[in-house]
Amino acid sequence: MRSVGSAGAVRRGRLAKTLVIGAALVTVGLGYGVLMPGGASGADGPQSDQIEAGRRLFAVGCSSCHGLHAQGGTNGAGRIAGPSLIGVGAAAVDFQVSTGRMPATQTNAQVPAKTPVYTAEETAALAAYIASLAPGPAIPASESYDVSKVTQPEIARGGELFRTNCTACHNFAGRGGALPNGRYAPSLMSTTPRNMYQAMLTGPQEMPVFSDHVLLPDDKRAIIAYIVALQNQDDPGGFGLGRLGPVSEGLWGWLVGIGLLVVVAVWIGAKVPRIHRRSNKSE
Q1: Do 56 and 112 fall within a single domain?
Q2: In terms of Cα–Cα distance, which of 113, 123, 124, 128 is closest to 192?
């Protein structure tokens, strides 16, 4: 039989183990609470509320095409109705929704921009929800696309970068252009600096992705500054004619220049018989 002393020692040993485990759990919990990142708020934090609001909006307005969990969806014919949005990031959602391209009203070769359906708060909630599913390009800070203090040399450098990387699709004046199979590069004359930056980050539709490894943030800001300068450019010589180069200028020359020459030729031809009649009467 065990003695009373040995039984008490066993109980004290078990109690000591329990106290050690409890103290360790408390220490880990306190350490996590102290070291937890500020963005990792609790279940009832503002960020979590925004994500939940975005999830509800997505389920109502987006899941019919992109799937209930943004995994992508197909229509009845087995064709892709909406691509997967896992990993596209908040920047892609903010661009597509704030420009009215999403939600799309119908499936065409390319989704055009239109009046946005969601408010700014709803757009931010949708972006937060998609960003919570997987890492992706974040919405850029305002300093990234602020061109209020850009110098003229930077604008000139942005023009060089734009002509090198963008004019093949968007035209040298940023007025857009046609692409194969009914697609097109839209005009940039009404695009905001924020959406320009996000488009370069995410590559919407036919546009390639210009990540920070391809174009540095300073390069992106210089390009945006150049486009903003084009948006605010005056036409001191008269009509801009869309700044489409020889196409619009040649058409204007044919319609107006050649047209005036035809009118003058007809007027001269109508005057010749009268001169002959007057000379015959004088004889």
Answers
A1: yes
A2: 113
Q: How far is CA 120 from the centre of its chain?
A: 14
- Split into its structural domains, the chain has a count of 2
Residues of the chain below pLDDT 50: 1-2, 4, 10, 32-43
The sign of the torsion formed by the CA atoms of 65, 124, 186, 101 equals positive
pLDDT in tens, 129-182: 999 999 999 999 999 999 999 999 999 999 999 999 999 999 888 989 889 888
CATH number of the domain that residue 153 is part of: 1.10.760.10
Query: Could you tell me which residues are annotated as the binding site for heme c?
Result: 62, 65-66, 166, 169-170
Q: Which residues are annotated as a binding site?
A: 62, 65-66, 166, 169-170
Of 187, 206, 231, the residue at which a domain comes to its end is 231
